[in-house]
Amino acid sequence: MPLNLLVKYNKLLDIKGMSETQREISLLGVFNRDIRNNPAVEFLNKKVHPTPEDGKDSMERLFTHLTTKITDKSTRKREFDISRSIRLHWVKFHIEKQKKDNILIFSVEEPDGIRTYIYDKKEEYVIILEPLRNRSAYFLLSAYYIEGKDKARNKMMKKYNRKLSEVF
Hints:
Blueprint: H1 20-36, E1 42-43, E2 46-50, H2 58-67, E3 68-72, E4 77-80, H3 82-85, H4 90-95, E5 103-110, E6 113-120, E7 125-131, E8 137-145, H5 150-161
Parallel strand pairs: 2-8
Antiparallel strand pairs: 1-2, 3-4, 5-6, 6-7, 7-8
């Protein structure tokens, strides 16, 4: 389990043979190191925060968004997602802009407001940020690996083609 703390981008975390409890402990170790216990997480010189939600621990909510996916849209039920989880350590790497090539960084006007995307084209990995209204910081909404047919990749490129003139 502690070996996952040594894994660097673009290697994947090794959690496949773990029990659910071991897996959660290992993933929380990575999450705590990179996000929860890291007050210096910034993107474009702006602090990155978990999205607050009334009555819920925002860090716990963020951890859930980074390691699970919605499996029932009507109930918004979430279940463990191995593809997101084994890439958990990629979030900080991309937010800190450590990768320079094959990356698209852009903002788009969405129905829910402006979203800023960090899209690693080679690894097919997306991080979604929401700029605060005063644009002094970001909320980290989610991050995921694009799976399946070209539909999801095409959707990301359609967003890119609608990008705003500046990154917010």
